[in-house]
């Protein structure tokens, strides 16, 4: 394999590892999975998010308490991602869409961008510094969740904000009957 192709493959693998790291942050906070959330950060990381500035463990405690108090569901969606990688340091910009079902039955949407400096230590990419900008935010009225009246809709698992969420099920199985409405 020529060296240019090998360099491109190495970069692609680094980018994939970085995207996996960013997804651990999002899934970790949405599922209240502290270990998964913390695995996205180096222990000495600094995060500036809203009113919060501090380390990963304190960020998890602050954010999870806020989400538990104010929302019944959250989704931290990651969108466009650009990444400049130089040796064991990467600088990324990731667009995000935050959506939440609030306890007052409104929905909150916000969009912005995360700016991350990641560092590879012991072959693991993790966030060392995160800042972000919120570019827009608003609430929208709620509607009933679709298909809530289907009797067996949750037979494969109901959405949960912990590790009993169906996304953790291994192997993934179907418990619903065949149905052609």
Automatic annotation (TrEMBL):
InterPro entries on file: NTF2-like_dom_sf, SnoaL-like
The UniProt annotation puts the region (Disordered) at 147-181
On the tree of life, the source organism's domain of life is Bacteria
Domain SnoaL-like as annotated: residue spans: 11-130
Q: What is this protein called?
A: SnoaL-like domain-containing protein
